[in-house]
């Protein structure tokens, strides 16, 4: 199963908003951080807003934020909102008729897709936001993390790399 780039971008936009907590995130900033055109970010934000994942605030001080806590946003739900989640193989039997038919290729692929997305339903946006490379804990020179701080858009130094 291959998901579209749009789905990957949608999940990254949601991660960006999860890291920002309740602060409004500007679409232009998301576009810059993720390397996605503003037009694509606006398109995806529109879909995510209609699906109930984001709340958009218009105006010069506007932006987007999560409409509900990251801990209740299931990744499977995001995929369902962005992707076509019904498989139709040309020339196959209509899945609405006779699912018991062993030759029903559409029913087989629909079952596989359902299983794939059910695995994604076991994971939340909060899990991804914690593991995301979008936000890393800020570190002090001795390498310890500073509690409660995050530096967005910066990656930690590679292990064994020397600081100059």
What's this model, at a glance?
Helix content is 41%, strand content 13%. With 164 residues, it is an alpha+beta fold.
Shape: elongated
Number of domains: 2
As a whole number of angstroms, the C-alpha radius of gyration is 20 Å
Text of the CATH class of the largest domain: Mainly Alpha
CATH superfamily of the largest domain: Winged helix-like DNA-binding domain superfamily/Winged helix DNA-binding domain
Largest sheet: 2 strands, antiparallel
Could you explain how this protein is built, in words?
It contains six helices and four strands, in the order αααββαααββ. With 164 residues, the chain is an alpha+beta fold. It folds into two domains: 128 residues, Winged helix-like DNA-binding domain superfamily/Winged helix DNA-binding domain (Arc Repressor Mutant, subunit A); 30 residues, no CATH class. The strands form two sheets. The protein has a two-stranded antiparallel sheet. A two-stranded antiparallel sheet has the order 3-4. Strand 1 and strand 2 form a beta hairpin. Helix 2 crosses helix 3. The longest helix has 16 residues. It starts with a helix and ends in a 12-residue tail after the last strand. 21% of the residues are buried.
């Amino acid at each position: 199963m291959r998901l579209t780039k749009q789905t990957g971008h949608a999940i990254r936009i949601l991660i960006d908003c999860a890291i920002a907590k309740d602060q409004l995130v500007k679409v232009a900033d998301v576009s810059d951080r993720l390397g996605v055109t503003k037009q694509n970010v606006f398109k995806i934000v529109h879909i995510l807003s209609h699906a109930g994942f984001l709340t958009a605030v218009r105006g010069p001080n506007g932006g987007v934020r999560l409409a509900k806590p990251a801990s209740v946003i299931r990744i499977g739900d995001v995929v369902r909102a962005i992707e076509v989640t019904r498989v139709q193989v040309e020339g196959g039997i209509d899945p609405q008729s006779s699912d018991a038919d062993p030759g029903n290729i559409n029913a087989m692929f629909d079952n596989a897709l359902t299983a794939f997305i059910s695995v994604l339903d076991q994971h939340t946006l909060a899990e991804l936001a914690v593991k995301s490379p979008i936000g890393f804990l800020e570190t002090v020179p001795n390498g310890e993390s500073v509690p409660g701080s995050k530096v967005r858009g910066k990656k930690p130094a590679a292990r064994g790399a020397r600081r100059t």
